[in-house]
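User: Predict the complex with adenosine-5'-triphosphate.
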Amino acid sequence: MNVVQVKNIEKIYGSKNEKHYKALSDIDFEVENGEFVGIMGASGSGKTTLLNILSTLDKPTSGEVTINGKDVTKLKGNQMADFRAHEVGFIFQDFNLLENLTAYENIALPLSLQGRKSSDISEAVNKIAKKLGLEEILDHYPTELSGGQKQRVASARALVHEPAILFGDEPTGALDSKSARALLETMEKINREDDVSILLVTHDPFSASYCSRILFIKDGKIDQEIKRGASSRSEFYQEILDSLGTFAE
Ligand SMILES: Nc1ncnc2c1ncn2[C@@H]1O[C@H](COP(=O)(O)OP(=O)(O)OP(=O)(O)O)[C@@H](O)[C@H]1O
Ligand SMILES: [Mg+2]
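Assistant: Here is the predicted structure with adenosine-5'-triphosphate placed in the model:
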């Protein structure tokens, strides 16, 4: 089954009296359950626009987006908030943690918002904290954490409600190379062991090399697709660099 199904999406920015800008057109693709898909492309190519549409933060001008069997472009108000709270998880470049909440409270937030019992919340938070190696820092505030730790807390918050898919928009963008590698290895692990589907937007070939398939966007269209297949991560990294070379021509 496909966790994401995108049909013929178009996104035009600018309302009636403003100048129009076509940020996406003819976007068609699927993400299978359990896949780890990357989206690469130059700055301004439409990556964030696409991710915002998939994650219901924005709507396409036309086209269909189905996530976990639901047409998200047809959701309204509360339904959309509800859908987001249950079905998707996000991680961003700048972590987006709430500074006045501890790591534990930040991770618990999606479940608290769903009004879940505190014993259920505690069980779920401790389980994901253990998986991501955060047990020791649960009572710390974000200002007391390193960048890598903050992003692991953000990842735990994105996964605590067991979403159908995890979306990441340059989640390694603000991390040093060691923390970036650790985060990517964690993503690879939860993808492999827990079958979490992941869609990762990045312009970094190293990050992309952890994916099993990569879609390249150019000027708002999907221009090329490559699959890792049986290649090792480092072979795939080389293949990505080669693709970026021809892609840029
Ligand atoms: N709210 C908006 N209104 C008008 N134009 C926009 C808006 N958001 C994005 N754009 C334009 O749409 C295009 C795609 O932007 P987008 O943010 O999706 O690019 P991106 O691939 O994520 O780039 P980056 O790698 O720099 O993050 C850009 O030309 C951008 O200027
Ligand atoms: Mg972007």
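The chain has one domain: 33-56+75-247.
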